[in-house]
## 1
Amino acid sequence: MKEQRTFWYSSRFKIIGILFILWGIYSFFVKYREHHLWDINLVSGLLCWGLSFILFSSEKTDDERTHHHKFKALTWAVPAGLIITHLINYFFLSPAEPDSGKYTPSVSAYVALSIVLTIALGLFYYLQYQDRIDEKSA
Amino acid sequence: MKNLLKLERARNNMTQAELATKVNVSRQTINSIEIGRYVPSTMLAFKIAFVLDTKVDALFSLEEGDWDSAN
């Protein structure tokens, strides 16, 4: 019985992910300096790529417990990200009334996905950290 | 789920790290199983039982509450 590989990218892809994030931050500041524009979509687009590479690449010691942590992190991050996206839309983008004849404004998919992936990644490393704490106390 | 992993590991004179290497998981995973924080997959349970020269149902057993919960 052969075990299937869960994550497509090797752990080296984490470096590529970090480079994407740094590229996003750098581009954001360059655009702000040259054009005085807060281009959130630019930074969040590259942030999505970077965070995806980091979260979905295999860990140095990659086993089923790690996969379980990633799945658990995602099951919390997706609804939490959805709630945050809704709150941003509601409080900062002044949603149109259902019968107003206007489109309902929303943050971009890149921003929403960045929120979800950031929460998932943070939660994943927190769960890994909890395991290490448990190991020390055992 | 109850388990006798720590006992069986000690009987085999094996550290968590040694067992982890043999079944190809991290030491944290073995520790999580021992303290009951994580229930291993069927595949991993069989591998552990094989390495410790015992049977899966001798290592792991259901508790009363396991029938009520989904995980």
## 2
Amino acid sequence: MVTLADGGGGKSAAELVEKIFLPHLSNPILSALSDGAVLPKINGRIAFTTDSFVVDPIFFPGGDIGSLAVHGTVNDLAVSGAKPLYLSAGFILEEGFPIEDLEKIAKSFGEAAKECGVLVVAGDTKVVARGGADKIFINTTGIGIVPDGVDISAKRAGEGDVIILSGTIGDHGTAILSRRKGLNFDSPVVSDSAPLNGLTAVMLEAEPDIRMMRDPTRGGLAATLTEIARASGRGIVVEEDLIPVNENVRAICELLGLDVMHVANEGKLVAFVPKNSADKVLSAMRKYPLGRDAAIIGAVGGAPGGTVEMKTSFLGRRIVEALVGDQLPRIC
Amino acid sequence: MKYLSEFRDKDVAKNICSAIKAESKRPLRIMEFCGGHTITLVKYGIPDLLPPEIELISGPGCPVCVTSKGEIDAAISLAQKENVALVSFGDMLRVPGTRTSLLGAKTEGADVRVVYSPDDAVKLALEHPSLKVVFFAVGFETTSPVTSAAVKFAELSGAENFYVLSAHKRTPPVLAALLADEVRIDAFVCPGHVTAVTGTDVYGSLTSAGKPCVVSGFEPIDILASVLCIVRQFNKGEARTEIEYSRVALAEGNVRAREIMNDVFAERDAVWRGLGLLKDGGFKVSEKYKKFDAEAVFGIRAVGDDKETPGCICDKILRGVKKPGDCPLFARACSPENPVGACMVSDEGTCSVYYRYGGKTIAE
């Protein structure tokens, strides 16, 4: 079990770092164990992002808080058009947290970083008294480099741009819900938690002038689309029938009264692409495993500025709004 | 998905719509009582598919919305007590009481927790014998049997520290009230899940007043088919109760569920937000189960005030007299982020549904 001394900066803290973290995260910059990592000279525009991870439960079908903490930050860099290079990792542990669990998380953190091709160059561990935190929280900060000619911004979404979604939506949120206390149910749905930097690289290679990309995490696709509509002042129209959803995810959402448009994803992206290069980008995405189910789901234009509308599978049209508060099942 | 895709089929919908258009002969004001129906209507854009002479009016069928301020205040006062955990469904947390909501009280330090089922509240009580667990029970005849079952579970499992604060509502009195109201309704699309428990006898007062009643499911085809049934009843000069939702609801309802509900609960007068005090409009915990009754044990009363915030017209919206777009606060001062009135709070509240699935267009 993790003790308060493990985060104290003394001998047992050093042991924790050496035994648990270094074997999985080691690289020359980190292994120097200096107070600050000194990075080689970077040429170009730097993308910089930070995110904290407090997911509950910490182990879920398709991933855990360790891999998620890597994917989350790497994906934020990737959809900014950057090639992710370096990560920092801050761990806040609750006193009494099982060492075996910490090892599992360190391992999956290390494996995820390797898969993404990023180096973990700085880290920190703190332990707080029992009840001071819930099991484990992780913060990751990432640095990446944006290639020349790439300019990803919501403001650049323009009339006629085609909207591409990289795959099915709702997998992460429903996988987490299926394991949440008080709502445990058996389901074959696994989280889609995955790194997107490989996918964004092939997309930007096919069309460097992609206007906007974002990964629809908390708040789901609805939040992402409404944010982009508001930031760009453009109207967006998507078609319900074109949005890929796993049949099991659809069933769980029906059962719990959730709108899949509001359910979180951790390995998907939406891209706003110039109309003329949409096919080129789509076929590049489909050749890549994480983009196998990629689909054109709509376009910019045809709705009042700042709003998102959906042509429903039925016959009508409706407004897509971001969710307010927590997503909760129906009560009657 | 089987049992769903059939009820969302475009071609079937087109056929029903053509039949409605061909057979509709007079203006009809049809009230859909249930918030679940309102969601389907707005989400699928059904009003646009109907001929202009058929108007659909949302009724007071959202249990969260009709919970009175007095009931919310009572729940808050219990949540603020030492060693009491107030447990409820998530939707209840943001409903404004007189001064604050349960969420506001939680932020101020009250012990407010969310469960997905009343049984989970009993389990919480069993896990923490020294904590007094109060389940804030809301809902119509769809949820009151479930609360009843939880009370029986508490009794069987010896959960001496489990209590129910009942804000449960009974639907028959509200139907009578709507009939007497200023809003003129020609026919009713009746709630499928409530009827699955109550049976169709409860609609007798409506049909004898010449109002056709059709018990409907919650998919778009269900609602369209129900509207067609109503049009046909008018054409034949009939007013009877029909069950469109025959895959779930039976004419006799669920006898077993009613038995357990009537064992654990007793009728009482209750304040419906927007409608005021309705005779026999609610349920309190029965004498037999008094030891589980939070009102008796803690000496409080979950009734009282139904005055709305100035400017808010939720009372008129709940009765179908006004629509969300008629309210000066709608999508301006009042939004799901900052609900002023109850109709904006719950996912099934009329204003919230209009805001989320079409509110902007309506407000502009």
